[in-house]
Recover the amino acids of this structure.
């Protein structure tokens, strides 16, 4: 009985010491992440355009032919590296080395880069894609190299381009995840947003043709033949189709201060529109945008690891936002600080999480505060003021060590008492035995 009690107390002590050493994690709130019904598109994803938070994914890293959604990358590079007012002259290759959708330009015809971009994004003109690539890089191979470099810069891992228009090629592929990253980057540019969201554009008269009225082929934005797929929240996008790629579609939609990007690939008509609408409705219904300032409003400062923004010299980007399920509470959002990647006024980044899902981030930036200088500023000071974070780092280990010592003392005293009591029992038994021997005489043994 005594031995059982000893081991029970000893086990409790060990558990206490272990808990103090490793730290007992608080119980997390339930990580409820909304789950959409399955869609017929072979690959699909929805992300938030501002934070990059992934709201839905299905086979997002599977390599697929992109078809004409390739032109989002082409347009982005052209806007970044070209001059919208520059004149592009169509070469023989631009006219005759392309097939499929075009605006039927002639060799030697001249259009501005701006007009070519509208034709590229609205009419999905392959001849304009070729002409743009030659204008930007000199030839198709050089432009494709630029496309791949940009994709790698954006973090694309399953993408390789060989042309600017998306016509079939075994070495021309991407995935839903990578396409969403490309679409997100492109949408940061105001010119791109304007062009991809334009419903109708009049191409002016050129040296070869009269003016041409062009319409956006994205039926959720502009209904060419039917209003069945018209979507009020759609603000732009790009269609794609080839026999090997099936339908591909990138859609931008805005509602309640959220702009979402939906990418679907390898879809049979009309699944690309049906799936996109269902996914966008689902995400708008189940997620909300929250300002980072709301996450820290009840606190005097935001904890950022070794950095504290209570300091006059640092602050969190006040415009940063996170996107979370509507069922989530602000108190359930956790954060981690990354100080490895810094640039400009940024000294680090706070990444926010809901459960295991990353839901946004905010830069930690330096404030324009003048620091008073003194004669001893550059001298070493062994009595440097200890920050609150440093005090915490010192006090906690001391408390843990003290607790361990107390537990060890208690266990030691219990062992000594047990040992002493055991010795008394042994002595008492020995005396009783000798007493019985004396009573029975010397022949007892």
């Amino acid at each position: 009985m005594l031995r059982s009690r000893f081991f029970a107390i000893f086990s409790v002590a060990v558990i206490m010491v272990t808990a103090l050493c490793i730290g007992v994690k608080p119980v997390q709130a339930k990580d409820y992440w909304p789950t959409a019904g399955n869609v017929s598109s072979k690959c699909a994803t929805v992300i938030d355009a501002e934070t990059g938070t992934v709201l839905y994914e299905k086979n997002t890293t599977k390599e697929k032919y992109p078809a004409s959604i390739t032109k989002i990358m082409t347009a982005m590079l052209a806007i970044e590296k070209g001059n919208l007012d520059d004149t592009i002259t169509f070469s023989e290759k631009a006219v005759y080395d392309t097939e499929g959708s075009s605006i039927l330009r002639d060799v030697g015809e001249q259009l501005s880069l701006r007009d070519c971009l509208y034709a590229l994004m609205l009419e999905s003109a392959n001849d304009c894609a070729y002409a743009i690539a030659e204008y930007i890089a000199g030839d198709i191979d050089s432009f494709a190299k630029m496309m791949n470099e940009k994709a790698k810069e954006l973090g694309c891992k399953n993408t390789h381009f060989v042309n600017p228009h998306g016509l079939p090629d075994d070495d021309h592929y991407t995935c839903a995840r990578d396409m969403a990253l490309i679409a997100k980057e492109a949408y940061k540019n105001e010119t791109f947003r304007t062009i991809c969201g334009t419903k109708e554009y009049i191409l002016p008269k050129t040296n070869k043709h009269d003016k041409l009225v062009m319409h956006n082929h994205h039926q959720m934005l502009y209904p060419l033949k039917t209003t069945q797929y018209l979507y009020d929240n759609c603000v732009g996008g790009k269609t794609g189709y080839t026999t090997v790629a099936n339908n591909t579609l990138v859609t931008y939609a805005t509602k309640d201060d959220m702009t979402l990007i939906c990418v679907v690939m390898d879809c049979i008509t009309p699944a690309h529109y049906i799936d996109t609408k269902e996914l966008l409705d689902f995400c708008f219904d189940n997620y909300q945008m929250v300002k980072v300032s709301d996450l820290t409003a009840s606190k005097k400062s935001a904890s950022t690891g070794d950095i504290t923004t209570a300091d006059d010299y640092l602050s969190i980007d006040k415009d940063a936002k996170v996107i979370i399920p509507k069922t989530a509470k602000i108190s359930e959002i956790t954060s981690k600080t990354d100080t490895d990647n810094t640039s400009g006024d940024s000294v680090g980044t706070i990444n926010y999480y809901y459960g295991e899902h990353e839901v946004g981030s905010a830069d930690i930036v330096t404030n324009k505060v003048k620091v008073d200088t003194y004669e001893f500023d550059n001298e070493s000071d062994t009595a440097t003021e200890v920050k609150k974070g440093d005090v915490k780092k010192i006090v906690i280990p001391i408390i843990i060590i003290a607790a361990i010592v107390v537990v060890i003392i208690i266990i030691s005293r219990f062992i000594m008492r047990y040992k002493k009591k055991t010795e008394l029992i042994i002595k008492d038994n020995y005396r009783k035995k000798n007493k019985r021997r004396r009573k029975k005489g010397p022949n007892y043994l």
